[in-house]
Amino acid sequence: MTEGTRASGALQTREALLDAGAALAEEHGLAGVSVNMVVARAGVAKGTFYVHFKDRAAFVDAMHARFHARVEAAVGEAIAGLPPGAERLFRSAEAYLDVSLANRGVKALSLDARSDPAVQGSMEARRKRLAAAGVADLEVMGWDDAEEAAGLLAAMTREISVLEFDAGHRLPASRRVLKRFLGI
């Protein structure tokens, strides 16, 4: 077996474990994401889990990191070529909301894990990095306190994602309100 084949297989196993965790989180919340349940769902031995993740907290953190990587990719695609400003902010928020709906399991997990000290710091760092991406847009729009405004805009967008999570679908009225807050 070549090194590339082994690496590819390891990546597939890691992704299978993360997919299993996301499915379990959607069904049962964070409490349903035990190592035993994840490996059973992924169809791998328990020891395989620990080859990829130090512990359950590292696994939960990896699920959240993968979610944020998906958000960042979707946002990048949604705003490609747009000048800084309100429209770019709105499209970024919509991309986040759409990825949240498409990854309901991880969204459920992140809601449950917000107060877990084992992952709280890294999750908060990713949220802050995502919010900071909107600072330049808000400055172009004339906001004096752009960093604070970006944090509040991110919080509003996360709240819409929670409402959409509960509803199980897009909430066009909430998205229109967000658009109006941005002056569009």
Care to describe what's here?
The chain is mostly helical and 184 residues long. It is built from 10 helices and no strands. The protein is elongated.
Cα shape? elongated
Q: How many strands in all?
A: 0
DSSP helix fraction: over 70%
How much strand content do the residues show? under 5%
Tell me the series of helices and strands, N- to C-terminal: HHHHHHHHHH
Low-confidence stretches: none
InterPro entries: Homeodomain-like_sf, HTH_TetR
Organism: Actinopolymorpha pittospori
Pfam families: TetR_N
DNA-binding region: 34-53
Briefly summarize what is shown.
With 184 residues, the protein is mostly helical. The protein has 10 helices and no strands. The radius of gyration is 18 Å and the shape is elongated.
